[in-house]
Amino acid sequence: MSARRVVVYWTAFSVILALLIVAPLVLPEFWRRFLTEILIWGLLAMSSDILIGYAGMVSFGHSAFFGLGMYGAAAALLLVKPPDLWLAILYGLIAAAGVAAFVAYFATRLRDIYFAITTLIFSQIFYVIIFTWTEVTGGENGLTFGRPALAIPGLFSVPFTSETLHWFVLAVVTASYLALRRITQSPFGMVLQSIRENEARTRAIGYPIERYKIAAVMLSGLFAGLAGVLYAIQNRFAAPDFVFFLISGEVVIFNVIGGIGTLVGPIVGAAFFLLLREGFSRFFTEYYLIPVGLIFIAMVIFMPQGLLGFMRRWLNQ
Amino acid sequence: MGIPLEQLLQAIPFEQLLIQTVNGIVTGMILALVASGLTLIFGIMDVVNFAHGELFMLGAYVGVITLAATGNFWVALVVATLTIALLGAAIHVTTLRPLLGRDPLTTILATFGISLVLQNYALWQFGPVARKIQEPFTGHFTLFYLDYPWYRLVIALLSAAIIGALWLFLKFGTYGIWIRATTQDRVMAQAMGIPVPSVLTVVFAIGAGMAAASGVLFGPLVGVNHAMGLDWVLKAFIVVVVGGMGNLGGSIAASIFIGLMESYASLWVSPAQAVIFSFVVLILTLLFRPTGLFVPTPK
Amino acid sequence: MTLGNASTDPLVKVEDIHTYYGKSHTLHGVSLEVGRGEVVGLLGRNGVGKSTTLKAIMGIVRPSQGEVLFEGRPITHLPTHRLARLGIGYVPEDRRIFRLLTVMENLRTGLDRRGVTDARKKQLLEKVYDYFPVLAERRNQAGGTLSGGEQQMLAIARAMMLEPKIILLDEPTEGLMPRMVSQIRQIIDVLHHEGAAILLVEQNVPLTLEASQRIYIMEKGVVRHHAVASKLRVSDAVIHQYLGV
Hints:
heterotrimer, C: Rossmann fold, 25% strand, disordered N terminus, membrane (chain B), transport (chain B), transmembrane helix (chain B)
C-alpha cells in the first residue's frame, strides 16, 4: 500500500469507528439494538469471508459454527453460577472449535461445490441433533438464559445496558476485524489466496495445502462462534433456527452483496441486507425475502464484485 | 452398545421389516424422480440447482389448484408438469444463461436466491396451512396386518415409467443426442450446429417438470406446504452425489438405497433422526469414493 | 486470383482480425479470402495463429477487432451454431469426437437438422459410408473406441453431414500413418470436386501444396505471404524462411 492510501485507510477507519462509538448515544433504542445486531452479523459474515474470499471455499455451513457458539455460551450461562461473561465466550469458542475441527477435517478434502455441499450437510447434521435432543438443547424451543454482567474479575462488574453492550460488541468486532486483517495480510493469508488462484501450483511449490485449509476453516469457525456468543448474549436465547442452513445461506448473501475478499464488504453486506429486510418487511411483512432475493439474484448476475467493489470502481473512475 | 444385534432384530417383527422395505422402495422411487431431474441439470449444465425443491413444491401447489378446478388428478399432474417446466425455462433464460461460463459456484448462489423467492412467494400466495391433494384412488390391499394403499405402489411405478421415458428420450431422440453431445463438448456441439443455449434451457425445463411431477405424485402422502421442498432438495443432493454426479442409473440406485436405509432406520429412531444416516452415507461416499458409490471405478 | 463462382463476393472473407487470449495478443490483423469451391492452404510454424484463425471464423474465438464475412454478410457476431447452419463445417485439430456417442450418433448431431428429408439423410449417410466404409462397420460403436485415423474420418464425415459450403480443416493428417494420410488427401479432392470450399491448415507442406489452389503463409499472428499453389515449390526460399523445412 502506498503511504497515501495508508493514511486514507486509517483516517476512514478512525472516522467510522468514532461514528460507531457515538452512535448509541444519539440513536433511539430500536436503532441502537439494530446497529449492534449488524455488527454481530457482520462479524459472522467476515469470518466466512476468510473462506469464500481468501481461500475460495464457499461454506454453506457457517450456521453450525454460529449456532454452536450460541449453545456453548448457553451452557456456560445456565450451568455456572453466577453467569460469567468470559466463561460464556470461552465455552462458545470451545464448542465452535470442536465443530470446526470436525468439519475441517472432513470437508477440506473436497473442493468447490463438493465442499459447499459437505459443509451444508454437516450443518444439517448438527441441526438435526440439536433439534431432536430435547432434554439437553431444549429442542425446537431452544434455551433461554440471563445476560451476564460486564465484568473484569477483581476490577469491576456492572450489568449491561444497551449502550455498554453495543460498545462491548463493537470492541470485540473491531478487534476481530484487525486480527483477521492482519492474518489475511500475513504469509498465511497469502498462501490461502494462492490456493484460491491455483491449488495445484501451490501444492507443487511445497505448501501442505490441506493443513492450510484446515487452519482456515478452524479460524473461520472460531470467529463465527464468537459471533454466536455475542448474539446469545444480546438476545438471551439459543435456538435451533440459528443452526439451520438458511442462516448459512444468508451469510453467503452478505458476502456476495458486500463484496468478497474484502472483510469490510461482508459487514456492509450484512448492514445492507438487514436494512433491506427492515425496509421491505414494513410493506411485505414476512415476505420480505421475495424482493431481497430478487435483488440478490440481480447482484450475483450484474454486480459480482459486490457493493464495495462497485463503489471502489465508481470512485476510481 | 448395551443391546446385542440379535436382540435388536428380534424386537422387530419380520412383517414390519417387509413393510419398511416396500415403503423404502416407494420413497426411493419418488426420490429418484426428483433426483434424476437434479442430476440431469448438474451433469449437463454444471449447475447445482438449489431451487429444485421449490420447483417440486410449486408443482405440488399447481397440482392442488388444478385438481380443485378440474377434479381430475391426472390432468393436474400434466398441467403441473408443463407449468413448472415453463417456469424452469423462464428461470434458466433470465438468471442462469447470463452466468454461462462463470464459476459454477455462482449458479449455487443464483439458484439459492431463486429458492428464497419461490418459497416465500408460495408462503405469500398459499399461506402457511398445508393443503391436501386427494389421491386418484383410495383402494387398499392387505400387506400382512396392514391395509397398504395401492396408490403408493402406483407412484413407484409411475416414477419408474417417467424415468424410463426420460432415458429413451436421451438415448434415441434427436434432442437427446444433442443433450448428450452438449454434455461432452459444448464448443464442438455448437460447431455442429446444435443450439447449445436452447438445449441447456430445455434440460432445465425437463428437470423442473420432473420435480413438479414428483411434487404432485407425492402430495397425497405428505400434504403440500411451502417448506416441503427443503427436505427433498437435501436428500436429492445426497442421492446425486452418492450416485455419481450426472449419472442417471447411479441416481436411481442411490435413491432406492437411501430410501431403504431411512426406512429401516426409522424402525429404531424417529424419521427426523433417520436423515442423519443419509448424511453419514454422503460424507463417507465423498471421503472414500468421491466419484459416487454406484459408478464403476474410473480407470 | 481464381474465384470459383461468378458472384463477386468471396465465400469467406477475413478482414484484419485481432484476437486476444487473456492478455496475449494472438492474431495481429489477419486477412484472407476463400472463394467458392476453392481449396486454400494456410501454412506456418506451430503457434503462429493458424488454428486461432479457424476458430475466429467459426465464432469459437471472438475477434476484438476486424470482421469475418460469409457470402458478403458479416458473421462476426453470430453464435457458432448459426454459422454451422449457414454452411461452415469445422474439423478441429484434436478431432473432438463425442467419445461417448456412437459413430451414428456423432453423425446425427449434424444430420438431424430442420429441412433435411429422410431421403436426403439416407443419401448423405450412404455417401459418407461409401467414402469411409470403416465407419459403416462401426456405426454402433462409441466414438471414443475408434483409432486415431478412424476418429479423423469420423470428424470429417460429421462435418460433411452439415452439407457445408466450406470446411475448416485443422491439421487433418497430424499423427496419422502414411496410408491414412493419402486417404485424407483423396477425401480433400473428393470434397473439392463436389464443390465444397476448404480452408486447410497443415504442417505437411507437400500435401498442402498439392491439394490447394492458393496458399497463405502466416508468421506471428499475421499473413506474411500469399501465392498461387502451383507456383510454389517445397524448395522455395519463402517456404524455407517461414516454415524452416
